[in-house]
Amino acid sequence: MSTQNSEPEVPIRRVDRFLTFGALGIAAAAVVCFFAIIIGTWVGMDQEAFGHGVWPLIAAIPYWGLPLAFVMIITLLTMSFIRKGRASSRS
Q1: pLDDT one digit per residue (tens) for the chain, 91 residues
Q2: Is residue 90 part of a domain?
Q3: DSSP structure class, residue 91
Q4: Which of 34, 40, 24 is nearest to 61 (CA)?
Q5: 64 in a domain, yes or no?
Q6: Is 9 a member of any domain?
Q7: Containing domain of residue 65, as a range?
């Protein structure tokens, strides 16, 4: 009694893997940097300390990374739906 999927198998392409792991990596880095900023303010760093060194980069990663990861996920979903739609119309 095996259940077979009636939908055709769609191969996973290299760009799909890039978008998947890229979005996951960027989102994870953004969350880590967000918590680094929270911990930095919790231990008493002043505003001036956040303007020097690596802190501007740490602050920019959540600012730009989360929207970029969101766009990558939406792109991945759109490409997947289009590809599956084309595969099902061919069968």
Answers
A1: 556 666 657 778 899 999 999 999 999 999 999 999 999 999 888 778 888 889 999 999 999 999 999 999 999 999 999 988 888 887 6
A2: no
A3: -
A4: 34
A5: yes
A6: no
A7: 14-85
